[in-house]
Amino acid sequence: MANLCLKICNQDRVGLVLDISRVLAEQNINILSMEVLPDIMYLEIESLSPYEEVLLNTQLGEIPQIGNVNRISRMPHQEREQELKTVMDTIGDGILAINQQEIITHFNAAAEKMMSCKSGKIIGSNIKDVFISKVPLLEILHNGLPYNNREIIVTTVKGKNHYLTSGRPIKDANGIVIGAVAVLKAMKDVEELVYSVTKPEINSFEEILHVSKVMEHTINVAKLVAQNDSTVLIRGESGTGKELFARSIHMASPRQEKVFAPVNCAALPDALLESELFGYEEGAFTGGQKYGKSGLFEYANGGTIFLDEIGELSFSLQAKLLRVLQEGKIRRVGGNREIDVDVRIITATHSNLEEMLRKNQFREDLYYRLNVIPIFIPPLRERKEDLPLLIESLLFKKNHRLKKHVKHILKPAMDKLLQHDWLGNVRELENVMERAVSFASHGEITQDDIILDHITPTTSTVTTPTSNTRKLKEVLEEMECCILHETINKYGTSRQVGKILGLSHTGVLNRMRKYNIPSRTDSL
């Protein structure tokens, strides 16, 4: 049975506590706890029978200066402890407190979740018995100094955990350190918080300027594949906007609220790229961070990772990437444990991967894992009807950036822009427009202000999987037909296919007729 708690109203006098204690002793009642305040006393004793409780109240009431004696549900210190626990459990960060004897006194719900330990088993234990590794909280007991945002790896019987922690001493009225308290943040939560605050504005399909049908078709295909988690391989010449498409696919996908992590595989040496992608354990190599580091696959868990210039990946990294695609697991450099990751992978290249396969420069198994959904971005010379729109947009942006007021492009200048082949695509156009705005005078761009790059084309930038005789429209239609076939075979009804692909029922039927895909009696 629950203990009996009493609130005794009184007029304070010397000897009152002694008189109350004498009454309890005569009835052989043990005092479990007592709180004495001016004119109020609280008692916690063992449970009594109804008769014994009435007798005790009568005897207490006969003591001089005793007023009302009332039963209460719990002692004031118990209420304070419950209120403190409620407050601590509503905090999202882990809170851990110890006393002067290194005994854990507080361990909130967030800390339970982080460390997979129940507070009932932790509170009352020596902190050295719970944490195998040294924790900075103990330092406070000896030096009394707080610490801020210290990165630590905490080792418990449950394993290793990575945290950012801040600690403060607990002092008595005389300034003596009688304990310490620490706040713990899981590094994954810290990284997500930093990303949410600092992430750049990610592009969407609405920002891809175009009027050409070939670009419209490419965007529609990309919108379709954005709705699922299929691996996408974006093909196109340098400067066509492959990363723009990758970001747009991410923003149109269910993962849009999570991390988008781009990395250029050609920009880093193999060893550095491996550690950036997969992370490394403590001591994996000289100069690494003290506690190791998580890689981009862990950082982007739940989101999207974009691997640009995938053709530049070394054979060893190709093998590790293949395992991520097949198993959804990574292993840090220098580590021996596998870590599950849920990441959508989008890759891009301007290289001819098929030629690299023939020369044994790219793994065939990885190629087929990456080439699930190929998207071919047309070069600017094949969609020149988009040039005026792009030119006007770039004129506005360059005016703003360079603090100029160029309002017009004279017709000879525009003709010169429209007749150029743009081997560097949009990136080359952007450079030319920046030069033109810089050199322009009197608020208009003349033919002389258009200074073009002159690059001799090479055959190393072929992007189609077969020969260059195939038109882009043919390749895109073939891919659309393949997607329709697979989706219809998987989901059966055209209405369900429409929901999956984001098309109307009529749109699905029209495409089925276009590609001569037989209708099924249960699909209408």
From TrEMBL:
InterPro entries: AAA+_ATPase, AAA_lid_NorR, ACT-like_dom_sf, ACT_dom, Homeodomain-like_sf, HTH_TyrR, P-loop_NTPase, PAS. PROSITE patterns: ACT (PS51671), PAS (PS50112), SIGMA54_INTERACT_1 (PS00675), SIGMA54_INTERACT_2 (PS00676), SIGMA54_INTERACT_4 (PS50045). Keywords: Activator, Aromatic hydrocarbons catabolism, ATP-binding, Nucleotide-binding. SMART domains: AAA (SM00382). It holds the Pfam family PAS. Residues 5-74 form the ACT domain. Residues 208-438 form the Sigma-54 factor interaction domain. Residues 80-142 form the PAS domain. Coiled coil: none annotated. It comes from the Bacteria. NCBIfam families: HTH_TypR. This is HTH-type transcriptional regulatory protein TyrR. It comes from Pelosinus baikalensis.
